[in-house]
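Posted in: Structural Biology > Protein-Ligand Complexes

Title: Requesting predicted complex, glutamine in pocket

I'd be grateful if someone could produce the C-alpha cells for the following input. Sequence and ligand are given below.
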Amino acid sequence: MSEALHCLGVAELAVALAAKTVSSEEVTRHLLARLAAHEHLGAFLCSDAELALAQARASDARRANDGARGALDGVPIAHKDIYVTTDFPSTAASKMLAGYRSPFDATVVAKLKNAGTVTLGKLNCDEFAMGGSNENSSVKPARNPWDPTRIPGGSSGGSAAAVAARLVPAATGTDTGGSVRQPASLTGVTGIKPTYGRCSRYGMIAFASSLDQAGPLARSAEDCALLLGAMSGYDERDSTSAQQPVPDFAAALRMPREGATGAKPLRGLRIGLPREFFGAGVAAGVTKAVRAALVQAERLGATLVDVSLPRTELSIPVYYIIAPAEASSNLSRFDGVRYGHRAAEYTDLLDMYRKSRSEGFGAEVKRRIMIGTYVLSHGYYDAYYLQAQKLRRMIADDFQAAFAHCDLIAGPVAPTVARTIGSQTDPLAEYLADIFTLPASLAGLPGMSVPAGFGEHGLPVGLQLIGNYWQEAALLHAAHALQQATDWHRCAPPECLA
Ligand code: GLN
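-- Reply #1 --
Done. Output follows.
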C-alpha cells in the first residue's frame, strides 16, 4: 500500500486508520521520506522526524486501546510558519525571528494537536504573510509543484505546495487578503478562509489584526471540512473570536438541500456572479475554466444570477491602506529588545532599534511599515485611514445587497495562473492581482477556492465561492457537490502521483 499512501486525502486516511489497514507510523514514515525527496520545492522550513514518529506511535497506541480521538487522530499535517509552536521554531519566514521558540502553541495548533494530528513541520510563507508569491520569504522561495519555475502563490505558498505535491494531506494557512485562497487556486488544491472570528487568532503572528483569519488547505472540500471543524471555536484569549456555535462541517456536506435530488444536489441554490469579476483583466483561460465549473454547478441544479459588487476596484487601495496601517502597529514589537533580531553593534538605543529593524526586516515588510506609518500619521489619518475605513463598510454593504439576490457568490480567485518566479518586480502590479480576494477579506466574509481545471500553460485555476457570514457549511456543501461530480480536485502534478 505504501506507494499510494501519499495519494490518500484526510477523509480517506481517517477511514484507513480506523480500519487499521494502515498505521499512523507507516503514513508518517512514508511522508517524511517524500518530504526529504522534494526539498527542491522549498515547501518546508523545518521538520522533525523523531517527533513526528513519536506522535504517530502515540496515536497508534490510542487506536489499539480504542481511545482514538476522532477522524483526525494520526493524520499527518503541517503548519504555516505564522503559527507559533513549542515544538518547532516560529519565524514567519523572517530574519527578524530566526530561531525564535515560542513558550506556547497557537490555539489552532493546540486544537489540531488535541485532535491527534501528527505535525511533520513548519511551512514556508511570505515574510510575515505579506505577499502573494512566497518570493518574500527571507529563507527561500517555495515552488509550484506543477512547474517548479513558477510561484505557488502566497502568502501560504509552502502550505499549498506541500498539499499539491502530496507531501501532506492537509496544512494550515492564514488569509488576510487572500493568502489561503490564492495559493490554493494557483496549485490546484482546495482552501477555505472562514468568517472573521471563526478561528482564534491567538498565537498567529499578527499581520493585520482586523483581517487575519486561519484556514485549512487540503485536497477536497470534505478534507477542509474536517480540518476547519477542529480549528474553529471561541477562544477567550482572542477577543475577536466569536461566540458562534461550530456546526459539524463534515456532516453538513452530506445533508441534502431541501428539494434536492441525487442528480440535482444543488437544486434551489442561487449563485451570484458579480459582473466586476468577469470583465477585462482576467486571463482568457481563467475565465473559461471558471465558466466551465459554473456550468457544472448549473447541471447540478444551481441557478446563476447576475449581481454587482460596484466597489470591487476600491478594495485594492482600501486594503493596502488598512493592512499596512495595522501591520506597522503590530510589527512595532520587533525592536530587538522584547522580540527579534538585535544588531551586533550599535552606539545607543535608537541606533540599536534602527540597525536591528533594518537588518531583520525584508524589503516588502519595510515598505508596508512605511506606508502604514504614513497613513496613520497626523494630517494624513483623515485623508487615508479614516476614508479607507468608511469605504470598507461600503464594500461590506455591497455584499449584503448582492446576497439579497443569491445564496453564494462565485468568480475567479486570481486573474491569472501562476507566473514564473522573479517575473514581477513592481509591487503595485503585484497588489492588483489581489483584486478578487480582497473584497471578502475586507467584509470579513468566508471564501474558498475550489479547483476548476486548467488555464494558460495547463496550470491550475481556482473557482472562488463567497458566502454570507457564518455560512461556511453552505460553501463546503456546494464545493463538495461539485467535487462529487467532477475530478479537477483529484488532478495532481503527474510526478507527484507516482
Ligand atoms: N497578497 C496579500 C498581501 O500581500 C494578502 C496576504 C495575506 O492574505 N496574508 O497582503
